[in-house]
Design brief:
Layout: H1 3-35, H2 38-64, H3 78-102, H4 113-142, H5 146-173, H6 179-206, H7 215-224, E1 231-240, E2 243-252, H8 258-275, E3 279-288
Parallel strand pairs: 2-3
Antiparallel strand pairs: 1-2
Helix pairs in contact: 1-2, 1-4, 2-3, 2-5, 2-6, 3-6, 4-5, 5-6, 7-8
Amino acid sequence: MDEAPRTKLINRTHALGVGANAGLAALKLSVGGIAGSRALVADGIHSLSDVVMNAAAWFGWRWASRPRDADHHYGHGNGEALTTLIVGVIVISAGIGLVWSALSGTSTVQADLLGALAIAVEALTVAVKIGLARITGRRGRDLHSPILVAVSRDNRADVLTSTLVMIAIAGAISGLTALEPIAAAAIGALIIRDGLRSVREGLDVLMDRSPDPTLRQRIAEVAAAVDGVACVDDLRVHPLGTHLRVDMEIAIDGHLEIRDGHAIAHAVERAVTSAVPEITEVAVHVNPAPTPGSDDDAALPAAR
């Protein structure tokens, strides 16, 4: 898919997620407050945190998509990681506050129309989240967008959370009023977990941690299979937000002309970016391969 239609579709998917979660948050908070359901109010706060995370993912993706300029020679990819880190801290704070408030009160939801409406809101949430998980997951895979794949994972987890809340509300209506504060505290713990995951993911990118421990070996094997490459001397993977940059050194026949070495380097670049769509930049340094019987240092293994 061309970049313009891809960008438009990703924007629409992010907008759908933000809009749906905002609507669910407003519905849960209003109905939960009127019905006296602490678990529903807690899930409304959870939906608000989803709005923040989805909006931040959208903003971070747009920021990271900006091209390189005079001040940012590697583009703005780490802007997404910084956004993720900040949002993670905010979400953790919200989760701690939710746990504290959940454990300091009891539910007042009753077996009446408002109680039934509270359950209906959670049933609606389950249906919406299943739909969002399918849409974001499919588009994330089709458009090679790791952010949308992560959002899809969060939507699937929310299906489980909403089911828990539905059970807690039904239990409170049946007289088990302690279930709702427990469910609200559990949701707070899940929010804290999501925040910690965001902090960790943001720090991983900012600290140049490779997203996949097997990726380096896979890239080395792809490069080494290119015609003319004797071996891969060194290889480094540099995360840049939504995409990856690879810096590598390859060894070729030292007697080749410069134009031939240049062609091999470009062939390696094309092979690597075709094999791993997340890689958008490959810098290849060419070394002369040691000749048999020479005193040159032995070539390093492909995945040193």
